TrEMBL record:
<dbReference type="InterPro" id="IPR000182">
    <property type="entry name" value="GNAT_dom"/>
</dbReference>
<dbReference type="GO" id="GO:0016747">
    <property type="term" value="F:acyltransferase activity, transferring groups other than amino-acyl groups"/>
</dbReference>
<dbReference type="Pfam" id="PF13302">
    <property type="entry name" value="Acetyltransf_3"/>
</dbReference>
<protein>
    <submittedName>
        <fullName>RimJ/RimL family protein N-acetyltransferase</fullName>
    </submittedName>
</protein>
<feature type="domain" description="N-acetyltransferase">
    <location>
        <begin position="13"/>
        <end position="178"/>
    </location>
</feature>
<dbReference type="InterPro" id="IPR051531">
    <property type="entry name" value="N-acetyltransferase"/>
</dbReference>
<keyword id="KW-0808">Transferase</keyword>
<dbReference type="InterPro" id="IPR016181">
    <property type="entry name" value="Acyl_CoA_acyltransferase"/>
</dbReference>
């Protein structure tokens, strides 16, 4: 069982549980059409962000299969990103991670730096065997994060779903615990 209550520090960032005061920061990027472009949700309203922050604030533990952790990525007191880790299977030791970064902070490696901590929690603390990440085939930013982390492209699904009214495809990336250890992050 994993509890992430104390902030997780990286070179430049602090990953911590969400709090009510983060609503305006979250709205600043989750309301933007370019952020929602390849996500299943539409740009979020302020009310939706408030509800989301309240829900995410509770997501700090991995106690059983099906649980997920969602952390606010804090840069000098402002939330610029969120990262998540879902425990998909206890028997098969599988997980999935995700990340969403404010466009004003893109291009500096922050998403990669924060997402690496989700892999670290999954592999080193939870003992997962394999962690996956999925993205739209057109989402080069997301694919770039997963490639920089050293994940393998395992599959490219073509027109596998109707996404926002049109046929969309998916890239499936994965990393094994042994590959994580070999990458020596
Ligand atoms: C996906 C997303 C997080 C990628 O953002 P990003 O800024 O490209 O990713 P990073 O923060 O890791 O930055 C990487 C870029 O910074 C550069 N960079 C600069 N300094 C760096 C450093 N110290 N370390 C690593 N990369 C660095 C990299 O070269 C890379 O640039 P490039 O793509 O031109 O090669 C962002 O586009 C996003 O949030 N999109 C909307 C939500 C979304 O689609 N989420 C994913 C759902 S699957």
């Amino acid at each position: 069982m994993i509890d992430v209550v104390a902030p997780v520090k990286t070179d430049r960032l602090s990953l911590r549980p969400f709090a009510e005061r983060d609503v305006a920061d979250v709205f600043a990027f989750e309301s933007l059409p370019e952020v929602a472009r390849y996500l299943y949700n539409e740009p979020r309203t302020s009310e939706e962000c408030a509800a989301l922050v309240a829900e995410r604030a509770e997501r700090t533990s991995l106690r059983a299969e099906g649980d997920s952790v969602v952390l606010a990525v804090d840069l000098h007191g402002t939330v610029i990103d969120h990262v998540s880790l879902a425990w998909l299977s206890e028997q098969h030791r599988q997980g999935a991670f995700g990340f969403v970064l404010h466009p004003g902070h893109q291009g500096r490696g922050y998403a990669t730096e924060a997402a690496a901590e989700m892999l670290r929690i999954g592999f080193d603390r939870l003992g997962l065997h394999r962690i996956i990440g999925r993205c739209d085939t057109r989402n080069t930013g997301s694919a770039g994060v997963m490639e920089r982390l050293g994940m393998r492209l395992e599959a490219r699904f073509v027109e596998s779903e109707i996404f926002k009214g049109e046929w969309g495809g998916e890239l499936h990336y994965a990393m094994l615990a042994a590959e994580w250890r070999a990458s020596a992050r």
